[in-house]
Design brief:
By secondary structure, this protein is an alpha+beta fold. The protein is built from 2 helices and 5 strands. It starts with a strand and ends with a helix.
């Protein structure tokens, strides 16, 4: 299990993982931040990128904030950093 700090940019033109910025992974999503939809979208995007099932990535802290901490199950901190290039 690993924790990952992310900065989310909602209402973007497309879903994408931008890269590392100030110690957090920057993720853009085309989904609006309403009723947790953006949270679900970034979790699904990250899970797909990491080759994990959707349920393996969840929001641990920051449900209503652009700064979030995600919980990634099935990978260690080192494996997560390696797969994300950080």
């Amino acid at each position: 299990m690993a924790e990952l700090n992310v900065r989310v940019i909602p209402n973007a033109s497309r879903d994408e993982i931008v890269g590392w910025h100030a110690g957090a992974l920057k993720i853009k999503t085309a989904v609006a931040p309403e009723s947790g939809k953006a949270n679900k979208a970034i979790c699904a995007l990250l899970a797909k990128h990491l080759g994990l099932p959707k349920r393996a990535v969840s929001v641990l802290r920051g449900q209503t904030n652009s700064q979030k901490c995600l919980l990634v199950e099935g990978l260690s901190e080192a494996e997560l950093r390696e797969r994300l290039g950080g």
